[in-house]
Structure formats: C-alpha cells, structure tokens
C-alpha cells in the first residue's frame, strides 16, 4: 500500500504519535480526504504500519521453523530471531518500534493474532521435538517457554535493555527450559 511508506517516513521524522494524515497525503500528492477511505484516523495508519512489520517478522520465523536444524535448535533459534529483530528495530528504528509497543500494550487485534500464531507455531515445534508429556502438554510447554523468555520478546522489556546484547543469556535460558521440559 502506497500510504505505508510515507507514513513510516513521517513516523521516523516526527515521532509515531505526531504523524498527521495531512502530511502523508501531501507527500503522496493527494488531498487527505482519500486517505480516510483506507484509514479511519492516524491510529489506523499506525496499526497498518505495525501490522506490516509483524507480518515481516512472521516470514523470518517461518524460515527458522523450516530450517534443517534439530527441533530443539530450531526452538532456540526462533527465540533468538524474535529477540534480535525486536532489539534491532528498537536500536535502528525506534519510532516504529514505539508504535508496536503501544499496539501490544493496547492488545490490538493483529498483535493478539500474531501472538496466537507464534504460540501455535511453538506448540508444533515442541511436538516435533517430542516435548509435551503428562502435566506439560505441548500447549502448556509453549506457555512455559513464552513466559520464561518474556524479557527477550516483550516490547517494553526489550526496549528497556536494548543497548545490552542479552542473546547469550537468552540462549542459556531457552536451553535450560528445554532441558527441564525433557524430564
């Protein structure tokens, strides 16, 4: 969609909370009225920009899942990929990341759906690794991993520690959690 790129530029230049649709329309060479056929307001545009980023994230994670690595290694690499993408976005492109943080805190529908897809994907990976038994079925095991690694994928927590490279710690935590789930 043509509106996304000018919206993203405006977000980067003025801040995610200050991008008027009028400026985006001007950048596109149209009046602002046609933009309202696609976006009810500025918030809807911010949501569209954030949703596109989440879709790009999903593509990367799908590639990790399809890799030829062992099931346990794929799970570890998946958490590392999520962490790296979020950390890199926060460091390199902070305004769109702040918009993502807001959408996550407001539990906007596409963020909730994204998390649901991530959890389903993780459950499938755990099943492939045969890590869901007895009191820890695949769904519960996925919840344990997700909660145990929250500091590395929750938008606000990633934002707070973005200047630190915490990947080695994340790897150790994921490996420890996976070992615990194997018992």
Question: Outline of this structure?
Answer:
The protein has ten helices and no strands. The chain is mainly alpha-helical and 183 residues long.
Task: Kindly describe this structure.
With 183 residues, the protein is mainly α. It has one domain (50-182). It is built from ten helices and no strands. The protein has helices spanning 4-14, 21-28, 35-38, 42-66, 71-92, 94-105, 109-128, 138-148, 155-160, 167-182. Helix 4 (42-66) crosses helix 6, helix 5 crosses helix 6 and helix 8 runs antiparallel to helix 10. The longest helix has 25 residues, at 42-66. It is elongated and about 60 Å long. The termini are far apart.
Q: What is the number of E strands?
A: 0
What is the approximate shape?
A: elongated
Let me know the largest β-sheet: none
Oligomer: single chain
Q: Kindly estimate the percentage of residues that lie in beta strands according to DSSP.
A: under 5%
Order of helices and strands: HHHHHHHHHH
In angstroms, what separates the terminal alpha carbons? 49 Å
Rounded mean pLDDT is 89
Radius of gyration: 19 Å
Question: Key terms for this structure?
Answer:
74% helix; single chain; mainly alpha; 183 residues
Q: What is the topological layout?
A:
Blueprint: H1 4-14, H2 21-28, H3 35-38, H4 42-66, H5 71-92, H6 94-105, H7 109-128, H8 138-148, H9 155-160, H10 167-182
